[in-house]
Write a structure and sequence with these properties.
The protein has 107 residues and is of the alpha/beta class. 20% of the residues lie in helices and 47% in strands. The protein contains 2 helices and 9 strands; from the N terminus they run E-H-E-E-E-E-H-E-E-E-E. Strands 3-2-5-4 form a 4-stranded mixed β-sheet. The protein has a 3-stranded mixed β-sheet with strand order 1-6-7. Strands 8-9 form a two-stranded antiparallel sheet. Strand 8 and strand 9 (105-106) form a beta hairpin. The longest helix has 14 residues, at 7-20. The mean pLDDT is 87.
Length: 107
Amino acid sequence: MSITLSDSAAQRVSNFLVNRGKGIGLRLGVKTSGCSGMAYVLEFVDELSEGDVVFEDKGVKVIIDGKSLVYLDGTQLDFIKEGLNEGFKFNNPNVSSECGCGESFNV
């Protein structure tokens, strides 16, 4: 099982953590939401919870709860800039379909 970060995502998360002044890493998870069934969740982590799985890539810790891991295994988190827009992109090999707006997915 693995979760990876692109160079740009690792740099962006590292910068956020430094500017925030605390935190051990980034939590990546899923929740039931949207028209396709699931949506990604990103948040900073100050303390680990029971059942968390920790991956480290390019010096950044990515924390995932055990229930989300089955949906996220093999995912690469990328950070992209397109014109005036910028944000994280999830390259998830488990996704079978996505909604038209790109906010939710199905496995």
